[in-house]
Design a protein that fits this description.
Largest sheet: 8 strands, antiparallel
CATH topology of the largest domain: Neuraminidase
Distance between the termini: 61 Å
Low-confidence stretches: 1-20
Structural class: mainly beta
Shape: globular
CATH architecture of the largest domain: 6 Propeller
Mean pLDDT: 90
Helix content: under 10%
């Protein structure tokens, strides 16, 4: 009887893990029709979620709107105009919150005319928004602002002006002079994301182009500001190849940086992108890992178990899908969060055993809308049941590259409706190898390089995607005849 009870407890615990491990239904933050983009959000110490975004009023006329939620994103307040402009384009709003729960907002002003752009700043003290403050006075052409606040409530605002990164900080009610972290060469630097650790050091991910190279030669880099000695440290190269948009960084529970970015897997055609991940273990940078192939718009968060979570957009035969990946044991597994024609501007935050995800998505007849979703992370999971998280494991095909036939091996740790598809690099369906319910267990299937009509496909890179219910994994294979 004791053995039976133990089995029941393990099975029940496993079922509970699965039942808790689903993304909630996407919530529409605003019903404003038209084009909405550049969303950002933060969470204060009371758990209130604050969100801003850019909304198109007319050509070259966009405002910044703000909304908040006090029930973990289930309902949102009526959008409030916080830029109060009567013309011109306001873009890329970013929010940060200090230890007293005051909101701080930075955004790009006059975005339609790059040579005349500036970065503006406003503060909200739970009652009123301050008057706009121009951070980049005397520096027209400044854009791509970023804002971060350290544990001493020092506010940093960064921006980009062709070829260089600049910043100022606000402390003791005064803005500092303008600084440039790397002003000793003609190399090009671009900041993608900046975060602060508990010691007030700043950790950044960005892109770098060496003098004389094309902007298409940019590589992903990490760089750090050491608060104690007021020193920007030498950059660390993350990518071997050209790195594109989608870089993100966060701190883990040991206050060490974890990073994700998009990078091609090859230096010569056929090209294929991948989401890469690495972290610093306190002594060394760990080897780069490929999370998934053919993604865009990477964002990362770390949970209380120190496990990384990465979301990105991936192409499908019918549009795109938003996928959440988490690393469990030694593999990455994805779960589909949303699907649509266009999903961009992702941001992921971990807060009190939940993941909160913000993004914009095209809705037919409505334009781009700001969407919010959340995910409950199961707590107190025994080590001997962690394996039950896995719904599948997808191996690299063999041989690869191949000329006439290759074999794909996978293992299902949980039964479910299963598809295994071959896609081209544009996400278009080439062939369906499996389409039906499959029981738990190991499987092998061969692909002979033919499409769904039985015709030989051209040489090149292709994707193979395994999906079990909402869980998926994607890898690439190469046909060479």
């Amino acid at each position: 009887m004791k053995k039976l009870s133990l089995v029941f407890i393990i099975v029940f615990s496993t079922s509970l893990i699965y039942s808790q491990e689903e993304w909630g239904e996407p919530v529409l933050i605003s019903t404003m029709l038209g084009y909405n983009d550049n969303p950002d959000f933060c969470i204060d110490t009371s758990g209130i979620i604050h969100c801003v975004w850019s909304h198109e009023i007319a050509t070259n006329y966009r405002k910044i709107y703000y909304s908040k939620s006090e029930d973990e994103g289930e309902t949102w307040t009526e959008p409030e105009d916080v830029s109060l402009n009567t013309y011109l384009w306001m873009a890329e709003p970013h929010l940060a919150i200090d230890t007293e729960n005051n909101l701080h907002l930075s955004y790009d002003y006059n975005a339609y005319y790059p040579d005349n752009m500036h970065v503006l700043f406003r503060k909200f003290n739970d009652t009123n928004w301050s008057e706009p403050d121009t951070i980049t006075t005397g520096m027209p052409g400044s854009d791509h602002n970023k804002i971060v606040i350290d544990n001493n409530d020092r506010i940093y605002v960064f921006w980009y002006k062709p070829e260089k990164i600049y910043y100022r900080y606000f402390e003791n009610n005064t803005w500092s002079e303008i600084f440039c972290p790397y002003n000793d060469s003609n190399d090009l630097y671009f900041l993608a994301k900046v975060v602060s650790d508990n010691s007030n050091n700043l950790h950044c991910i960005g892109r770098y182009v060496e003098e004389g190279q094309s902007v298409y030669d940019n590589r992903a880099i990490y760089f750090k500001y050491n608060y104690s000695n007021i020193l920007w440290q030498e950059k660390h190269f993350l990518s071997e190849n050209t790195a594109w948009a989608g870089s993100d960084i966060c701190m883990d529970n040991n206050q060490l940086p974890n990073l994700s970015w998009r990078e091609p897997t090859t230096e010569v055609p056929p090209y294929n992108d991948a989401t890469f991940y690495t972290y610093f273990n306190g002594t060394n940078w760990m080897p780069n890992e490929i999370v998934v192939e053919d993604p865009k718009y990477q964002t990362i968060a770390i949970d209380s178990y120190n496990r990384p979570h990465i979301t990105n957009q991936e192409k499908t035969e019918n549009g795109v899908q938003l996928v959440h990946y988490q690393k469990l044991q030694d593999d990455w597994e994805g779960q589909i969060v949303d699907t649509g024609n266009n999903i961009t501007d992702l941001k992921l935050i971990y807060y009190k055993n939940k993941l909160f995800l913000l993004y914009d998505r095209y809705r037919t007849g409505y334009g781009n809308s700001i969407i919010f979703s959340k995910y409950n992370i199961p707590v107190n999971i025994p080590e001997n049941t962690i394996k039950y998280y896995y719904a599948n494991s997808l191996k690299q095909n063999y041989p690869n590259p191949f000329d006439t036939e290759t074999t794909i091996h996978f293992y299902l740790n949980k039964s479910g409706y299963t598809t295994l598809k071959i896609l081209d690099l544009q996400g278009r369906l080439v062939n369906t190898l499996i389409n039906g319910y499959k029981a738990k267990g190991g499987y092998s299937i061969k692909w002979n390089g033919k499409d769904k009509n039985g015709k030989d496909v051209k040489n090149g890179l292709y994707l193979y995607r395994l999906q079990v219910d909402k869980r998926c994994m994607t890898r690439s294979l190469q046909l060479v005849k």
